[in-house]
Design a protein that fits this description.
Blueprint lengths: L2 H10 L7 H18 L1 H18 L1 H4 L32 H37 L1 H15 L3 H12 L3 H27 L3 H8 L4 H37 L11 H8 L8 H27 L8
């Protein structure tokens, strides 16, 4: 290792940072070292980055149109040089539909995370800090949502809102926030009587400022890990809604809907359903491996050496 690299490493790992920026960069560097020490987590990160790459450059990478097929010549073709993963019952290239379907999958997981995580974070931190009847009311509402299986509750909301990818995202988000609220509440209960929070109270900070500026940031690490681990469940729920015809509607190349259309040919043309099923498996595995790595990397009890 060069002298410059050693100096930079010592600057990042110093016990006496000279600025907030140095302290934050040092914590980020330590977390990255913990993360990269887990090879499976790196594999999961590469899988997710590969999916993002496919989604961004889908028009350049897809060899055929995901919507237009050739019923006369290309219906249910076996995998080969012309169609690497074969074609479906409409003569459409399955590989192209998988590549474009990665966009829908990323759209679902990102929008659900953006909607559900802040709701759960706000509900949990307010309940944990306020306590009393506020905590009791918010947690009983959370318990009501947790009492129902996520897929069943999502089916009920989609049935009420109507089928479609937008309504499916809303339904999944509505059913996904309770676990985040539980985690945030536990973190808030841990720190609300700490010297740090008591000092902020003595300085005259309002309860909302304490929750938003001082308690919520302490819950972010745990929330990020839980959201990442939940991505696989979100993908499976979205695929389940698509399989039942309540998610993305034809001709959108949603992976669950692709499995539903291919189940009729599972015995003779197995690749029609197997390809999107394998895609769901790989991406779900990638998110689980990534979540495990983030859990170890963001654990404050871990060693920083």
């Amino acid at each position: 290792m060069s002298e410059t690299a050693m100096t930079r490493r010592e600057w990042l790992l110093t016990d006496r940072p000279q600025s907030r920026l140095q302290a934050r960069l040092g914590r980020t560097y330590v977390a990255w070292r913990r993360f990269t020490a887990n090879r499976l987590a790196v594999v999961g990160l590469l899988i997710i980055l590969g999916m993002v790459f496919l989604a961004i450059f889908a028009p350049l990478l897809a060899p055929h149109s995901p919507y237009v097929g050739d019923l006369a010549k290309s219906r249910l073709m076996t995998p080969g040089p012309a169609h690497w993963l074969g074609t479906d019952d409409q003569g459409r290239d399955i590989l192209s539909r998988l590549i474009y379907g990665s966009r829908l999958t990323l759209q679902v997981v990102l929008l659900v995370a953006v909607i559900a995580a802040p709701i759960g974070l706000l509900v949990g931190t307010v309940a944990g800090y306020a306590g009393g009847w506020v905590d009791a009311v918010l947690m009983r509402i959370t318990d009501i949502f947790l009492a129902f299986p996520k897929l069943v509750l999502a089916l009920a909301f989609v049935a009420a809102l109507g089928p479609g990818i937008g309504n499916a995202i809303i339904a999944i988000a509505i059913t996904s926030w309770p676990p985040y609220a539980r985690i945030a509440r536990a973190e808030a209960l841990t720190v609300r009587n700490s010297d740090y929070i008591l000092a902020v109270q003595l300085m005259g900070a309002s309860p909302w400022r304490i929750v938003l500026r001082h308690i919520m940031p302490l819950c972010i690490s745990s929330l990020i890990v839980r959201v990442t681990l939940d991505m696989a469940g979100i993908i499976l729920t979205a695929a389940g809604l698509g399989f039942l015809g309540l998610g993305a509607q034809p001709p959108l190349p949603e992976w669950g809907a692709m499995i539903a259309s291919g189940r009729r040919f599972i015995l003779d043309q197995w690749w029609v359903a197997a390809a999107p099923g394998f895609a769901i498996l790989v991406v779900s595995l990638g998110f689980n491996l990534l979540g495990d790595g983030l859990r170890d990397a963001l654990d404050p009890r871990g060693s920083g050496q």
